Every structure is written in structure tokens, then in C-alpha cells.
Amino acid sequence: MSADTSGRARPEPIKAVPVRHPGRWAGVAVIAVLVAMFVHMLVTNSAFQWSFMVDEMFRPPIIEGLRGTVLLLITSMVIGIGLGIVIAIMRLSPNPVLRGVAWVYTWFFRAVPRLVLAILFGNLGILWSRLEFGLPFDRQIGALFGLHDFEARLFGFSAVDILTGFVAGMLALGLSEAAYMAEIVRAGIQSVDEGQTEAAQALGMSRAQILRRIVLPQAMRVIIPPTGNETIAMLKDTSLVAFVPVSMELFFQLKAVGSRTFQPFPMYVAATLWYLLLTSVLLVGQYYLERHYSKGFGRSTRARQRLRGLAAESGSTTSGTAQ
Predict the structure, then answer these.
(1) Which among 219, 223, 212 is positioned nearest to 191, based on CA atoms?
(2) How many CA atoms lie within 13 A of 118 on its CB side?
(3) Which of 33, 50, 57, 246 could form a disulfide with 270 if both were Cys (CB 3.0 to 4.6 A apart)?
């Protein structure tokens, strides 16, 4: 047996032939042709009016509309995030009344399109000529006691002065965003292990302290990515307030230039370029925020933790053997 085994010839090394993927190369060729056609269209088609577009898209009214868009984005997201956190906490409350109110709010503002909300809020002046603050139902209470001229109102404003187009659009976008942020924050809070809350309660921390110091910092890892996506979606949805109308807005100003000069298509391309630029800036910020809040949860971190665990186990085993 040993002689036969030693005398047996060794097999030749296997010649590995890489798997060919003709479909991939065909797809690359199709994409290359389409890209070439698209670039050729951009360069040769006179409808783009590149010189006219570049000359118009940086004029003062456009820059003012850009500032209005950024301001509308920031204020709407501040309202949406702040109110969304409150609605999420209400949804998780043991109080059935708070849970019911939060559910109805979320149901309503997620069901109605933002364009409809923007136009609706822009026409709220039809309901009230003035917005006044004071004792609710003051006239009805006075009439109940025979005081027909009784009024307990501290101050008020004209609805036309307060509910401007910008404020109406900001409220419509912010209140709508709060419904979506409430679901995002609620999912983030529920992703934190309940043992964290129980441990904090054992240390004597209040519910507010647990939420602020324990739960929300850990939930941010889950909350940040969809919040970044919602911010980018909000940037694009700011163009909806042009139908309120809001004149201090980027798309409104670009559309006005196109209508005045009878060149609407170059201005639509300019709007596309502006939104691409703003979205790219937001994507960079989202990337760094996600990287900051994902510390300790990446693959490399988990690998290092496993290596440390193995090193600790081997160290304890060695010390036990030496003893």
C-alpha cells in the first residue's frame, strides 16, 4: 500500500478559468451609449440656453428666493422635529387620551397631501378675520351671566397680517413633517433595549432624565438616517409653497423669470441645478452626522470588541494554567 501510494503521480494543478459575464459588458456598453447621447444633447441642443440660464440664475431676486427656501427649510424642520418628539412621547405614554390625540394627529397629517395643506393654510384667513388671545368662550360666558358686552381678550392680530404666505407654508410643511418625525422618533426610542430604562430607574432617575440622557442619545443612531432623508424631502417640498403663493422662494422666482422672458425651460433646468447643489450639501452633512452617532456600532468596532474578548479569555486561561 505504501509503495503504491508513494509511486502514484500527483495530480496536475487546476487551471482556474474566471467566469465570464457577457451580460455585464453588454450593460456597460448600453450605459456608455446612453451617457454619450445625453452629453451630446446637453452640448448641442440650443433649447438649454446655457449662457442665458447662467446669467439669470445668480441675479439678486434668485438669491433672495434661495435664502427664503433655506429659511423655510430650517423653520419647517425645527417645527417638525420639535413637535414630532412631543407626539412620539405622547404615542408611547400610558395615558390613553394622550395616545389617542397623538394617533389622530399622525393620521390626519399623514393622510392629507402637503400641497393641499399649503393651499388650505394659505386660505385660513377666510375662517377668522382676527386672531385674538384671552379667555375662551368669553362672550358665551358673559351671555350666560347676563353680560352681553363682556370680553376677556388680552390682545389680537389681523389674520391677514399674521397668516402671510410664508407663515402659512411654514406651518403646513412643519405640522405635516411632525407627523412623520413622530413615527421616526417613536421607532428610535423603541429600538433602545428596555434594560437601559430599567437600569436608569434603579439609579433613581426620573422619566425626563432617562429620556434625555439615556434613551435619546442611543436612539439617535436610528433616528438620524431617516431624519436626513426627511430633510432632503422637505427641501424639495418647499417648492410647493409657490402655489400658496410665496414669492420669497427659489422655484417661484425662477418660474417668474421664465414667464417674463418667455424662456421657461432654461429656468426649470436652473431650478434643477440649484436643488441638486443644496441636496448635495445636505448629503455631506448627513454623512458626518451618521458617522458621529454610529460610533461603537460599526463592523470594525464589533470586530475589535470580539478580539478584545478573545484576548481576555486567552489571558485568563494562561493565568489559570500558570497557577
Answers:
(1) 219
(2) 21
(3) 57
User: Residue 132: what are its φ and ψ, rounded to 5°?
Assistant: -120, 150
3-class secondary structure per residue, 131-184: EEEECCCHHHHHHHCCCCCCCCEEEEEEHHHHCCHHHHHHHHHHHHHHHHHHHH
Integer Rg of the chain from CA = 31
C-alpha 64/C-alpha 78 separation (Å) is 21
Q: What is the per-residue burial (b if ≥16 Cβ within 10 Å, else e) of 268-295?
A: ebbbeebbeebeeebeeebeeeeeebee
The residues near 210 (Cβ < 8 Å, ≥ 6 apart) are: 197, 200, 201
- The whole-chain average pLDDT of the chain stands at 84
CA dist 279 and 283 (Å) reads: 6
Helix-helix angle 165-191:60-91, to 10 degrees: 40
Band of pLDDT at residue 316, cut at 50, 70 and 90:
very low
Please give the average per-residue pLDDT across 47-64, as a whole number: 91
Q: How many CB atoms lie within 10 A of CB 248?
A: 20
**94, 96, 102, 173, 219 from 90: Cα distances, Å:** 8, 9, 6, 21, 17
pTM, rounded to two decimals: 0.77
Place of cell 397629517: 109
Cα(165)–Cα(162) distance, integer angstroms: 9
Pick the closest to residue 121 from 76, 88, 166, 152 (CA basis): 166
**Whether pLDDT at 87 is above 80:** yes
Q: Exposure string (b/e) for 46-59, b if CB count within 10 Å is 16 or more? A: eeebeeebeebbee
**What's the rounded Cα separation, in Å, for the pair 279 and 272?**
10
pLDDT digits (tens, 9 = 90+) for 146-189: 777 777 777 777 777 778 889 889 999 999 999 999 999 998 88
- At 222-243, the pLDDT tens digits run 888 889 899 999 999 999 988 8
Residue 318's pLDDT band (cuts 50, 70, 90): very low
The number of CA neighbours under 13 Å toward the Cβ of 53 is: 16
